[in-house]
């Protein structure tokens, strides 16, 4: 069964209560549950992982290279604008990935407009709240389905 790994960066564990006017009221647990249910319907395992620290995210990206992960969906959160190390980990493992943001980062503060990930990503989904993850998952599922076996 193909696997898609969903990575959540710092402060996303606070979804539902953190700035709901910006990030919405969905909790991370409810987002993960919907993604896993959709994956199951498509015959795909969806694994999720969240950390507020850079090193565990990097280590999980490294592990994805050998655990049969086919795609990564990542919301690097604040690391979007600061983490060359996480970018380098994604580049090193060579797995296709989709960058996700709940808010429209291009309509926010100037520093949020630069991403260390977008130029490596297969695509970027931003501004649709929790649905951003779902749209990214649909894209990854579609790409998996069209991949020659």
TrEMBL record:
Q: List the EC numbers from the record.
A: 4.2.1.10
Q: What reaction is this protein's catalytic activity?
A: 3-dehydroquinate = 3-dehydroshikimate + H2O
Keyword set, alphabetical order: Amino-acid biosynthesis, Aromatic amino acid biosynthesis, Lyase
The pathway where this protein functions is: Metabolic intermediate biosynthesis; chorismate biosynthesis; chorismate from D-erythrose 4-phosphate and phosphoenolpyruvate: step 3/7
Residue(s) at site: Transition state stabilizer: 18
State the top-level EC class.
Answer: lyase
Q: Where is the active site?
A: 23 (proton acceptor), 101 (proton donor)
Residues annotated to bind substrate: 75, 81, 88, 102-103, 112
**GO MF annotation terms:** 3-dehydroquinate dehydratase activity
Which Pfam families does this chain map to?
DHquinase_II
| Domain of life (superkingdom) | Bacteria
Does the keyword Endoplasmic reticulum feature in the UniProt annotation? no
One biological process term from GO is:
aromatic amino acid family biosynthetic process
Record's InterPro entries?
A: DHquinase_II (IPR001874), DHquinase_II_CS (IPR018509), DHquinase_II_sf (IPR036441)
User: NCBIfam families attached here?
Assistant: aroQ, PRK05395.1-1, PRK05395.1-2, PRK05395.1-3, PRK05395.1-4
What is the protein's quaternary organization?
A: Homododecamer.
Query: What family classification does the UniProt entry report for this protein?
Result: Belongs to the type-II 3-dehydroquinase family.
Q: What task does this protein carry out?
A: Catalyzes a trans-dehydration via an enolate intermediate.
Name the record gives this protein: 3-dehydroquinate dehydratase
- Organism expressing this protein natively: Usitatibacter rugosus
